[in-house]
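Shift notes (night). Ran aldehyde dehydrogenase (NAD(+)) while the centrifuge was going.
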Amino acid sequence: MNLQTKIASAASEAAEVLERLGVRQELWSAGSRAVRSPVTGETIAQVQDTSAERVQAAIEAAHAAFLTWRNVPAPRRGELVRLLGEELRGAKADLGRLVTLEAGKITSEAEGEVQEMIDICDYAVGLSRQLFGLTIATERADHRMMETWHPLGVVGVITAFNFPVAVWSWNSALAFVCGDSVIWKPSEKTPLTALAVQALFEKACARCPDAPEGLSAVVIGGREVGETLVDHPKVPLVSATGSTAMGRAVGPRLASRFARALLELGGNNAAILAPTADLDLALRGVAFAAMGTAGQRCTTLRRLFVHESLYDAFLPRLKSAYASVPVGDPRAAGTLVGPLIDHGAFEAMQRALADARAAGGQVTGGEPVEVAGGQAAYVRPALVEMPGQTDVVRRETFAPILYVMTYKDLAEAIALNNDVPQGLSSSIFTNDMREAELFTSARGSDCGIANVNIGPSGAEIGGAFGGEKETGGGREAGSDSWKAYMRRATNTVNYGRTLPLAQGVKFDI
Ligand code: UN1
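Came back to this:
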């Protein structure tokens, strides 16, 4: 079902929304970088790249802000994040709309992304009263050993187009309560949502007397802007979300100056459909995880291993879901699959499908869908029945392609799940408790996320988010991810009158 062939302009609506969100017009109307809406293919704004001098100045200002901010007690830092959460609540519909216009997400997913920002703000406010270290038993009498966590400095945050606002908030809400300042380099494809978030942040700061100038800044541009952040000695941590190729460039540069890297790179996420699976639930889980966000989440389901006993019952149902899923204008009620980010993504998808066919794959779907007079890249999600896990299956193509394969026993399916370079997310659909436990055990999935009876995408903020191997190893959002944004000090305090040395060493002079 294709929802429509005529489509309303995105440009005038983007201007109205930016205005309502308080983004100054000169920031989006006068620059030399065109911002294109994937919804219609129109240019909806012109932003200015941040010059090298301005990036340097923003880092210096953020460092100066950090020197003040680190002295503000953490619960009062939490007050700023509480106010940011309030601003986001008030702006949810508008910011969600801007996410739709700039990144192409359907309304519920775009608003869901803003909800994720609100949730992490709430989480960080609570966290601001719970930043704690341990007290550890010492081997010496009249001594106390403890660890303290201190603010780290300026955090560089590099984000991708597919979560244009939420990923910033996972990093920044935590960084702010931890006493850090933040410089944000959004994707070149989605600078408007970043400018809008910065405007909301500045409104929160205006209501918070503790917040220093320069605590947060957005810098716009391509690779060179990211490199400035990565190479700057006053940026002790860079959190970067994007491709594995980007991570390969960023990681060693940070390592060469002993700065911290928090990397969230490619995923190639699988689901296993086991013999006892609830097929109705699994069908919905697979459909959302594989087709949702037009296959452009790093947690998107890309590989499905179906037990051979279920294949003939399940595949026709899945194929009919692929044939009937509504593809179209993401603003329209009823649309479930919006556009790809651009024509380049469409071409990469077609190349992967050609490779899959050459390797013996049978492709259903994958054809262009006429929505915006060919100006935008709409596509029917593709289901590809593969004879095995070939090279094309083992690489991540950032598009709605689901490769389906069969398996005989769970050990084989787990081995296939793990036999890719990436290690972000994974899942099993089963009602067999032994299978579920094995999948989540040490010899089960090797991914950072391993789910049972839930697809691999749609993580909540309360857990640590990230993955292993070529996914980069970083963890952000919940659990103890906050520790990445602070530095740890071990303090040993002697409250006695003698000086016993550790390990029984004698040094009497
Ligand atoms: C991403 O695709 O960059 O698990 C992050 C999810 C989201 C995060 C995805 N909460 O789908």
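The two ends are 88 Å apart (CA to CA). Confidence is low (pLDDT under 50) at residues 1-5.
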